[in-house]
Amino acid sequence: MEAHVSGVPDLVSGIMLLILVASFTAMLGTRLPRLPFTIALVLVGVLVEAAAPYTPLLAALADFRLTPELVLFVFLPTLVFESAHNLSVRRLQENILPVLILAVPGLLISTAVIGGIFYLFGVFDLIVCLLLGAILSATDPVAVISLFKQLGVPERLNVLVEGESLLNDATSLVLATLLIGIALSGEFSGSMVLAGIGDFLWVFFGGSLTGALLAFVACRLLGRIDALPAVEISLTTVLAYGSFIVAEHGLHVSGIMAVVAAGLVMGSYGRSMVSPGAERYLHEFWEYAAWLANALIFLLVGMELELLTYWQSLDLIGLVVVAMLVSRALVVFGLVPQLARLPDSAPVSRAYQMVMYWGGLRGAIAIAIVLSLPDFAARDTLIAVVMGAVLFTLVVQGLSIELLVKKLGLDLPEFAERLAQQEAELHAKEFSLASIDRLERGEFFSRRVATRLRDDAEQQISRLTGDIDELELRMSDEEAGRILSLRTLSREKTRYDELFRRGLIGPWAFRELTHNVEQQLDDAKHYGKLPGAAYRHAPLHLALMRLLRILGGVPLLGRLVEQRQYIQVMRDYDVSWARHRAAGSVLGNLDEIAAENGISGTIAERLRVVYQRVSTQMQREIEQVSENYPEFVEAAQERLGQRLLLISAQDAIDRVSELGIVQHGVADAIKRQHESELRAIQRSDLSHFLEIGPSELLNKVPMFAELAPEEFAAIIPGLRKRNFPKGERVIRQGGRGDSLFMIARGIVSVVDAAGDNELVQLFPGDCFGEAALLHGTPRNASVYAVTPCSLYELSQQDWREVCRRHPNIEAAIESIDRQRKEEGVNGR
User: Fold this and answer.
1) In terms of C-beta density within 10 A (0-12 exposed, 13-18 middle, 19 or more buried), how is residue 356 classed?
2) What is the DSSP string of 486-508?
3) Distance (Å, rounded) from C-alpha 529 to C-alpha 553?
4) Rounded to two decimals, what is the model's pTM?
């Protein structure tokens, strides 16, 4: 779409014509369902280019050309950002190692194989051959991802394919840029290779960091915007294009990698910053933007094709096709089976490997790179070869991928899906039958018409009922467990949706809970696993918690770490409360769900035990938080009440608006005000209700209760606050620590040497470690945080100074020491 046109009117007319042609092609595609949309666009583009000089209506398109700037600056940021934004970041974290293996070593293997084959045939110099390999090693998964969504494949497989594509796009672009520099310089040496590797790492990770930082800034801005969807969508648009420009031209790092990182951050952390009313619009906007960019780029590819040139380069195109197929086979059939050896990795079946192999199409990235090549001897030949290879993958592989899926039997729904489809149709027909009765009573049509419609509906209901009964008779215990698991997990997920919509849980808890239940749904559907009581945190979250524990010892960062730990306490409370409510909902409906699906009581009892365990465990955690942080729980309940009142008020405004009591504009203004108030409540900080000062703590510790005010104040300067997350070890048996710990918030457990036998639990106001403080003896037991804990530590050095000034405090500690020796749990 290069600006060879005569002016703005021609430019606008050409763009509108392209959009119109793309829309008509999409409409035509509904009549030809077997023809992939991208392939149809390429073919239509060829026809448009041929007809443009002779058709006045298409004359405005005669000078439109696909340029590298257009692909890189207009199309790619949209396509990459939308894909990254919708990718499951939690799943990507869990599969980051296999994704990186496919995206980086896999791409390098593919580059070497394609380049090596061309070099063996003496077509180009080695560097040019490797450059061709790098250009054609980036895959475009549009067709295969679309098929995967239709087939309902395991989510992990989706993540592997889409994650590989996202990262190898950036890897391919960076590698090709480095090889272009070497090709133009005409020099190749070991030092250049080392320098190239350094440049590669800098460009790749520098782009990632740039995009992530810009995305965090954008998220903070979004958090300050109240119910303005247009502004929020505009900010994400600026982020997508701005991150590419800043990285590529400002910092000279990978712009594509910056967009990938920005999209991933916005799709995870940013979702909680976007107002609820804007989230749906945001999704629809980027879905349309990606559709439009994808449509225009392939339409322009078709207009760019010069069939005569490709005919003249047919031998090279044939060679590159063979090289691509060989390299893709080595990556998929060589690397993918090895991924199952990684921790927590399920194997990918041979059938799905075949789909990954044949679905490795080439698209926008390859076109953008080859068109952006500087002018050198092999440029025109490379363009012809790359465009021919892209055309082959689109037409031959794209048209045959669905046939391959059917040949492998992947298009056949599983037992659980067939039963679910039949039940959904049955419920729909039963609802339709009830509607006929209502319409007949309302005299919308005659009794004869109603009778005929009713007879048809009853026949279909009878047929569906028979099909369902037949399926249930053939249902194995394994299938019964799978179906009941899917039903109960769906019920649990629905409950989380409801709690979030009503404002009863925050966005972080909703995302975590939804991901956990979706992961269990995936495991139940594809691997037959029953739901479990365990709750799996995201790997990034666990890494952050470990980092906070390390940073907690840095004096200048102590307050920041403490605040972040308080936030996590609030989030964990949300999660526990929601899981308790969801488990109760499942338990209350479990018998009904099992009976509806003809499933025996034995399987239902197994699931009942799981959800009862969840309910009991969550109830215990809620009670522990209530006991340890009563002020926080009260404040959280008050905030929850305020949100419920505002949501009820919004529902009332909707009703009076529908009745015409107030105008829609007035109702919208009131609702926007309510949205602002809801966001303000959501942003309110409750962390100060979790804090406890040393004075409050010392009042709780019995041995300090009788101290005089000046003695009480003497201890406070020597106390150092420590925070421990749930499950963290506070002291280790055999350790040489010399500090006393006083529990401000939370519960700790004292365990024996084996770690299996709990000696005693200690609560707020209790202390431990007095023997080490007094005598410097090694710890003879370990102490773990049962709940998130706030402790105050008093070191031996500070203790001696306090005792020197106040001898009666030392006597009190020694008394406790003697008492615990008698109880047999001393020396901690």
Assistant:
1) buried
2) HHHHHHHHHHHHHHHHTTSS-HH
3) 42
4) 0.69
